[in-house]
Structure formats: structure tokens, C-alpha cells
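Hey, sorry to bother you again with one of my protein questions. I've been staring at a protein lately and its backbone has me curious. I owe you a coffee for this, so here goes:
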Amino acid sequence: MYFDIAMPLTLFAVTLVSLFANQKTETKLKDTLQERQLGVRDAVLLVGLMAVMIYLVIFVRQITLILMALFLFSYSMLMFTFAYLFCKNRWYVAVLPPAVFILLYVFLKDTSVWVYVLANIYGLVFAVLITLYLVSLFSWKTTAIFGVLLTIMDIILVFVTGTMIEAVNVIGPKGLRLPVVISLPLIPLTPNIAMMNLGLGDFFFAGLLGVQTFKRYGERFAIVSAIGMTVSFFLFEVLLLNYLTIPFAGTLMIICGWAPLVIGKELIRKKPAVSETQI
């Protein structure tokens, strides 16, 4: 039986980093974002916009250059924002990380160093930064709604239409080579399957669930939920490597490990306490 530990452990590590780093960054980011939070309507709209963007990538190939510029700008601004906040507002220092990123992409994107090393490193960094930047915008309620809707959208775009896979091919390692997908070799090595891929959106999803779980239930249960997501991902991956060998919705693999734990916790939490005088 084939299995892989590289991607599950990477998912677990990124989730934990997001979980603990959020404690140090949330206050500063909330001040920057002026304590704004997304409502239910905003969560629905966000999922809809993500679906529209994915379809545009596939059906309007003429926008690929615009798309590349948009991604590079968004990533650069994200890096600049964090660097600026933690470099004591020294813009001339904060501009260096995004400048280096763009230069490396422009000059090395067609090399194996970028495809197999730098794209993965930047992808993991962006996965954490995106989580830290957006997580403060979500409440527990909007996280739950967003998680369900995102999973449903992912299932449709992967299993029904296949659009998600095509979009990854356009902007990922086989196309524009933007750091939107983490590609890791399987450990242990598996015959006929060299790499396992997971999108940044899936890492963000796991990080969002982990951080919101921390806020609601505390550190210990948040770590338990991160372990649950990792184990679920690992088991789905075993299924894929041995029986299915097809693309699978990463959000489904993640939420199946998180939802049962949280639902159980909620049921215990809402269970009325029994008086000591009752028999």
C-alpha cells in the first residue's frame, strides 16, 4: 500500500505556523484593517467571486498577462504590508522583499530552481501571509458558512466540471508558473507518481479553520483540530494513491477532519449541565 507523509506534514506545519503567528500579528492587522469583518453576505460573495475568477482563467485566455500582473501585484503588496508593519514603518526596507520576489520570478521562472524550489518556498510563505491577513476579517459564523460554500464550490469545480484542474494548469507550474500550487515529492517514493500538488487556497482554508478554532476553543483543541485535518488529508491521500488516482477536492479532504471534531465539541458545549442534586 502506497502512502505519503510529505504533503500532510507540510499542511500541518503551515496550519500551526498560521495558528501561532496570528497571535503576534492580529492586533497590528486589525488596526490596519480598522476592525472590519466580513458578514454572511460578504462570505457568499467572496466564494462567488472566486468561482468567477476561475472560470475567467479558463475561458478568457487573453487575460493571462493581466492575471499574471494581478497576482504579482497582490503578492507584492501582501509582502510589503507585513514587512512595513514589522519593520517599524520603514518603507525603504519593506520594499525589498517584494522587489526580490518579482526579480526572481521574471528571471528564473523558466528554470527548475524556480519550479521545484523557489515557487514552493514562496507558495508556503504566501499561504501563511494570506491566512494571517484575511483571518481577522472572519467571525466564527462567517467561517462556517464560507467553509461549507467553498467546499461545495471546490467539489463542483473538481469533480463535475474539472475547471479547477484546468485553472491550475493555466496559472500553476505548467503555465504562468505563479506560486499558487505547492508541489512536493512523495515520501516515501511511489512508483509512477512523482509529485503531489496542493493549492494555496487549501492551505489558507486549513489555516483559517485552525485559527478560528483557536479563538473559539483555545490552543489545545485548535492543535487537535489541526491534527484531525492532517489525518483526514493523509487518509484521503492513501485512498487516492492506491485506488482512485484522480484529482480530488482538497477542501473536502481537510473539512472531513475538522467538522466532526468541531460538531462534537459544540454538542458537548451546549449540553445542559446536570445539577449535583439530580439523581
